[in-house]
Amino acid sequence: MRTLAVHVGVRHARAERRGFAIVATVFALVIVAALVTGAFFAAEQELRVARNSRDAQRALSAAEAALGLTVAGWDGARLNGLAVGDSAIVAVSSPQGTGAAGATVVRLNEQLFLVRATGLSPGEVARRTLGLVVRLVPPPASFRAAVTVLAAPAPEVSDLIDGVDRDPSGWSCEALPGDTLPGVVVDSASVDWDALVALALTIYEPAELPGPVVDVAPMGDAATCDETARNNWGEPGRPATVAGCATYFPTVYAKGDLTLAGGRGQGLLLVEGDLTLAGGFEFVGAIIVRGSLSFVGSGASVRGVVVAASLRAGPDLAPGGFSIGYSSCALRSALGPGSRVQPLERRAWAELF
User: Fold this and answer.
1) Do residues 291 and 271 lie in contact, with contact meaning Cβ atoms separated by under 8 Å?
2) pTM of the prediction?
3) pLDDT tens-digit map of 139-151
4) Are 269 and 227 contained in the same domain?
5) 233: buried, middle or exposed (CB in 10 Å: 19+, 13-18, 0-12)?
6) Whole-angstrom Cα distance, residue 160 to residue 165?
7) Domain check: are 130 and 152 in the same one?
């Protein structure tokens, strides 16, 4: 009897140890499974974070590229004519692999614009928006008088030149008129001729100018302007007869002598030789002539600024037969399409939310 009792106790202890081993094994398997599951979960989260970071970076790169492309390809003829508070959409193509992007330009005041660019990652998973404030940099030219010449004109000519800053007839410029300038200054003007000529899209060769140009006039309608027409120099009239050309300010370059008999235009006129205005020709903007500027007949008028080697009155010039008046508004409008932009000196861009 005593021996049997001892044998049963040993078997019971071994059974308890086997039961504990099973529990410990199951517990260990649960711990290992939890660790593996946690590792997989962490790896998946890290993968998602990495993908999100990649998509966000692609969207950011697309937005930053859109800012750079908008500034580098600045369309002065279109954007510089925006009214304060108005905006325009700019189409840009993003670098390969960065996703899609678009930009909007908003005019803040006479000198500043806000470029707002939005970038999307491939698949439009992420979106980033950046803002950049840029300022206008006018073409390399400055003017100190209504007329700048190298030789003093005759008194009867000087009397027809006005340095008081006035808007062109019928115009309503947002900026207030500036200070009165001298009517005539005898000096060389601060003008980078080559840089201004590089702005010209309409160029007249000497062979094209055997006689007077008589058909300078805006070409378009109330909503459109035919900017491909060579003798379309915009619409200076206000109210505009051809409203579609009211914001068109071309840079026109004549490589030789030029005679304009009648018509009207606006913008920047560059003449390599001599310029003759006749037949009531009207111009708003800046005229720069490397030779002499002559007036014949009656009725010719220029509102803006004039630079020439000399200013002459033709033998048949009627009394009071022409007028030149300074206008900062006309000058800004004429040089505006040729103005480029550059970011402000401080932080290049900021993220918008």
Assistant:
1) yes
2) 0.73
3) 878 899 999 999 9
4) yes
5) buried
6) 15
7) no
